[in-house]
């Protein structure tokens, strides 16, 4: 209880050293102990206050225990309370002396005044001395039956305290079932609430060893209990309401009518001024409607206004807690909040932790209609005095660019950042331009023109420098000075402290060499020599690897270092959707604020209401790592479905991460070298596929002297479809009328495919996973007719398909029309292979 | 469930410390304070209100420079704990009259009494000032209120040399008046915080009013109170048939949303916009509201920055008060970040002005212009000549600004929400307690981009 024995950091000059004062007090207390003179209580009060104040600032006054107990024989309640405070603080360290207090506390437990009874009982249970528990059972038993609710309130928590001192004593006295009875019958709602808290703790702890306890714990979320509590909800204090609502959120209703009954009953809780009550209510609403897509969406609409009001009222701390929850909802269903984007604008005086959440929300809600305004606002922040926030804002602009179809205007803004001549702005913008180019190679011309003007001397941050070097290597054919800039960077090799930059420099020089051999050859020689001599293991290894592969075969080297690349359609998300779902399950808890599920920051016994098996936790950590591989999964175009099946959507939400699936340079070097090595091994073991002439291994010095790389074999670009294709029905019809039939074919459907043909919906779902989208379907068994469309990944070139399937003959007739006729046969192959896989798991 | 509660001074001393469950080690206050103080090496960033160190979750709110802290190991609702900390501060203030380090130190025994009843074994029992009255026996030792900054939004009524009527906002709920008799009075404060962002062309980009109707009642016998708001008040932007937009100050008041204290009954709210309640003791918000309907901003800001020769530039700042002349804004401060390479700034005020000060904050390159008061309808200008250490390459307007402004305007509210009448139900005809209905508007984020 109360102030710990703790030393004060800043000692005031007048602070007493302790010893003499304490013995002084001891003397004075002794004199007063037996006195019955008038006014003695006042003097006692003064002395007690002194004792407590010494206790608070950390002077050990435990030696006064005996005198304090002697003086406590008083009817003065202020004195009694101070004495209880003192005893609670020191009983644990003086268990023998604590025995002295049992007597007067037990006597007070029978006092006429219910308040004295309550106070004494609370102090008795707070002694935390194991060998005194036998004295607790009696007073607790009568306390639970006390006619005064204050005493019962105290007694219920007292049972919980007893449980923590000695679980067996508590269970043997059958207190849990007494509490259960009180919970369902007591007229005082605070008694009910405390019973609920105590039982949740006791039964959760017991459930590990006792099946009965685990059944009892389950029974707390049974219909009768839940309904009983809900019917009294308005009698509870606001804090107890939170407790009850947390329980209700775990309840699984049997019928959907129940869901609406509960929601209607709790509707006015959303107007409560206490944010904790509102959030607890929202959790109930969200969890109850998980299976009802439409209602779930209505809930989002309904809770928007109350949440925004809570964010803007109350202290900054309270509003931060609410904002974190708004954040998770926005991230789950950005389209619902897309018209509220102005609420997520940052105010200049807000703390960084608030601004950061808002920037993420602004990024998430950006869509075709509001992007212009959001990006304009973000550009204002880029000039902000708060540099970390300025950086985040630039990153946000980049993220929006990566998730939009029309990035035209945004690219312009980013290029303007490069011209602002603030080093941190330039640094962030370079990294973004690099990411953009990886997704939209078609912008290379505009970007390269601007990037070419940036002097590498003005770029100091490793990430930015690496990005610049990557662009120099990747686009060396378009940048006049690329070989010379790289050369000068190689010359300063020793001054480059970042291994990341040196790794990129090696790769960039290699790339540049394959594109402009005569100009780069010197730089390459110097870079390889410096790299091989580098003290950093990864740099050394990569240089050596390049050296040897060049020695082995130049054209293989080019294949490895400079392969034809596909644009990255989706950057991997940092957090797996499973983790996000877990956090959402733990709505209205710290998980939301930390953006981590509870198993990541709490130990098992303190997980509170969120108990998950560790196994599950481990599984999802593994899942997170696996998630780094970009999946080319399709995206459901219908946002409504996404609300619940977030997994697909989250993956497409492009975020700036190192796309490890893409290309070596941005990986940690060791894995990239490894990847390259496996690649080369396969090429070596299968020389025909690589298609290179069996060149004799030339000495590297000869090679560089001659500069005779073999011409790279033209790689036939494979047709790649966009997973995000969009085409509206009227545009489809129009095109279908205009375009000639490019291909008309008949193929057969596999028996598994016919078997899977349970209705007209099954096939579109399957085809969608191959990035072929259904726009219309119809027909009855055995004849079905479908119209599909697809788009090329990097350009808006459409393919339209009419597909008639007869399930009895297992045949499909396909008509294909295409914007680009030359690729229609490639598309047809793709389409048929997708179709042939229908029904095969 | 809370493990510990403590209050730390600005220097990190324990003023009160209460361990409820013994689950968190004793050194937690020190760990917490060090973490908050050195959140980021550069000291630029503030620690968030919630963080985790070695499995212990620390929650804190800042009130009058004091840190109210709770710890727990359990994954609890952050909003519940933060709300609770704020509430504990308010309850303590209700009892002590004034919340400050001094008053807490003088009354720590009373505070322990309160804490014992508010939380038991980590579970919240009650935060009702009224219920707690029957458990608190210590008399508060009143500290001199005039010297200290009181807590809460109502504190703005204390600013300046002239006090608003009824300084009773610093009165304890349990202490008796010097005369021995309690004065029957009730305070209703309509406090609005406004946020406006002007674009560089003076057009309003965003605007919002966050308002609170705050009540503090000293009426004996807890009579029922009826509070009537504007009859044409509507709530929910989609609710009205036509979206009436006007900056001239006419038309109905449309709130986006609002919430109410649990004591408020809304039986007749839909009909005649009247709130009925039996006010509990102590200070509490009757209603919080939010409005994004367009309103007339109280100040227009005009800023011009242009180069004036080699390594020199001139700034002209104009502030115009667009409210009636019988109203005066006070404690006005205008701030503007200047280009990083500014070395010197010399100021020129209008001739003959009083109560204005200017300052160039060298450390963060900021211009600061303070005005003691601004009378409605007036306009004020500041000219500043800047000297640079280097030539500016880019657009100079991108290197400076935005201009931000803070102010307080008593007896003015931008939303036009009003308390039409305040009715106290009591039979006796001679019973006529004092009723104070006060309005005040404050800047939350008032920014003009240049």
From TrEMBL, chain A:
Biased composition (Low complexity): 1-17
Region (Disordered): 1-23, 641-668
Keywords, in A-Z order: Membrane, Protein transport, Transport
GO MF terms, alphabetically ordered: clathrin binding
Chief location of this protein within or outside the cell: membrane
Signal peptide feature range: none
Domain of life of the source: Eukaryota
Domain Beta-adaptin appendage C-terminal subdomain: from-to ranges: 719-836
Regions crossing the membrane: none
One Pfam family this sequence matches: Adaptin_N
Compositional bias (Basic and acidic residues): 641-653
Polar residues bias spans: 654-668
UniProt KW Transcription regulation keyword: no
Gene Ontology biological process terms, A to Z: intracellular protein transport; vesicle-mediated transport
Localisation: Endomembrane system
Presence of keyword Membrane: yes
Protein's job: Subunit of clathrin-associated adaptor protein complex that plays a role in protein sorting in the late-Golgi/trans-Golgi network (TGN) and/or endosomes. The AP complexes mediate both the recruitment of clathrin to membranes and the recognition of sorting signals within the cytosolic tails of transmembrane cargo molecules.
Quaternary structure annotation from Swiss-Prot or TrEMBL: Adaptor protein complexes are heterotetramers composed of two large adaptins (beta-type subunit and alpha-type or delta-type or epsilon-type or gamma-type subunit), a medium adaptin (mu-type subunit) and a small adaptin (sigma-type subunit).
PANTHER family hit by this protein: ADAPTOR COMPLEX SUBUNIT BETA FAMILY MEMBER
Stated family: Belongs to the adaptor complexes large subunit family.
Protein name (record): Beta-adaptin-like protein
Automatic annotation (TrEMBL), chain B:
InterPro entries membership: Adaptor_comp_med_subunit (IPR050431), AP2_Mu_C_sf (IPR036168), AP_mu_sigma_su (IPR022775), Clathrin_mu (IPR001392), Longin-like_dom_sf (IPR011012), MHD (IPR028565)
Subcellular location: Endomembrane system
Domain MHD: 183-449
Highest taxon of the lineage: Eukaryota
Alphabetical UniProt keywords: Membrane, Protein transport, Transport
Classification via PANTHER family: AP COMPLEX SUBUNIT MU
Keyword Phosphoprotein: no
PROSITE patterns: MHD
Gene source species: Herrania umbratica
Protein family (similarity comment): Belongs to the adaptor complexes medium subunit family.
BP-aspect Gene Ontology terms: intracellular protein transport; vesicle-mediated transport
Main location: membrane
Pfam family, one: Clat_adaptor_s
Cellular compartments per GO CC: clathrin adaptor complex; endomembrane system
Protein name (record): AP-4 complex subunit mu
